[in-house]
Amino acid sequence: MKDFFQSTKFKILAAVFVVLCAFMLRATMSGGLTPLTSQLLSVVTTPLQSAASGVSESVGGLYRHLFQAGEIEEENAQLEEKVRTLTQQVADLERYRRENEQLREYLEIKEEHSDFSFASASVIGRDTAERFYSFTIDAGSEAGIEKFDPVITSDGLVGLVSEVGKNYAKVLTILDTTIEVGAYDIRTRDIGTTSGDITLARNGQLRLNMLPKDCTVSQGDLIYTTGYGGLYPKDLAIGEVTEIHTDSSGMSMYAVIDPLSDIETVKDVLVITSFEGQGEQVFE
Amino acid sequence: MGRKRALIAGKHLIYCFGLIFCYVLQTTPGFLQIFGVKPFLVIPAVIAIAMQEGEFTGALYGALGGMLCDMGANTFYGFYTLTLFLYGAAVGLALIYLMKNDRKTAVLCCLVYTGGMALIEYIFYYLLYGFAGNWQVLLFQLTPRVLYTCLVMPLFYFGERKLFDYFSRRTEEI
């Protein structure tokens, strides 16, 4: 063991250790700026992740098509080639349909919120060490995405960007216990703050906290963002109230919310790169 | 001499692409996911390399594997890079002075690292913040992930041993 600590190898490893520490400190001090090493590695990994997630997504459909082809093969072997061609066409049509849907959703949101600027992205990674369904998308600073940009689907709010690389970005979802969003009940106008909850997150739900004791929020009410704070735009749909409870202090109420976006399995998202009032109160 | 170098370079190229491949699979949505739990694939690969190659190479591949893990995880940058770097060296040294190079040791090494990391993650990301019901993260998310990773560890151990033996044999032949 003593030999190792006196060897050149040890000195090299010690030098590498110091360099890694320097990278870590720089990343911490730059407030989440993606380190050079991650930027370099992402050049290789992001296209591969994109391809892998595409394969993973289409595996379900592929099995279905293969099963159908098998049935047809049993009935008539001569039609096998035709089925294969049709299957390919179906896959193409499915891809066009998805693209079409995405563009239509984009147009609808754009018509509703003319002040929004978007970057569309696909989910390419859900890591083993993910927190509360956080994920990685295939667009980054090159697409104009910045840290803290809100992430949505046509159904509603999904989360916000926590880290940006050149061609990728990491997204924390609204189910995360560290993410708080100013929100209000569109029917009663009661105001509160949504936040993740470990127990509820397992069912894909979150909490609307700090509701007044005399609030009239009820099951089925829709919850929207207030826009206060400048981090999220006003009037983005968050979810639907499923339960109302008195909180542990007995001083206020909280509601359990089902997000309108399917956060656990979301595949395509839109990142709002700019909107009216962005960062007004947060960064002042 | 030239062929020997080419063989060594080939082996390290396989290691590098192997780690990247493991990272891509590890982050592929739904891949190997059972009841919402996915195993780490990069960590067992790094441990397997460190067990065969020793402390120096183990540490360097630990750093590479850690950088990949840091890219996917929502932890502060360097969490996995530094720990896997040190652990790669530690595993290499432990194999020389303390432990046998076998499947049980591989699983034990994997358990110690993933278990330790899970505990650190639990304490610093959940327990200290006092989130209600934080024990559920430990019980339903972190512990199953550790066990699942340990379950796939032998595959990496045997795979890496075969690869290492193959290249050692070829190098000796020259």
UniProtKB/TrEMBL annotation, chain A:
Matching InterPro entries: Cell/Rod_1, Cell/Rod_MreC_2, MreC, MreC_beta-barrel_core
UniProt keyword list: Cell shape, Coiled coil
Ranges for domain Rod shape-determining protein MreC beta-barrel core: 123-272
Entry keyword annotation includes Coiled coil: yes
Family matches, as Pfam families: MreC (PF04085)
Keyword Acetylation on entry: no
Coiled coil stretches, renumbered: 69-113
Family classification: Belongs to the MreC family.
PANTHER family hit by this protein: CELL SHAPE-DETERMINING PROTEIN MREC (PTHR34138:SF1)
Reported function: Involved in formation and maintenance of cell shape.
NCBIfam families to which the protein is assigned, alphabetical: mreC
Protein's recorded name: Cell shape-determining protein MreC
Organism whose genome encodes this protein: Hydrogenoanaerobacterium saccharovorans
TrEMBL record, chain B:
Family per record: Belongs to the MreD family.
Matching Gene3D superfamilies: 1.10.1760.20
Gene that encodes the chain: mreD
Regions that span the bilayer: 12-32, 77-99, 106-129, 135-159
Cell location: Cell membrane
UniProt topology in membrane: Multi-pass membrane protein
Name of the protein in question: Rod shape-determining protein MreD
Annotated keywords: Cell membrane, Cell shape, Membrane, Transmembrane, Transmembrane helix
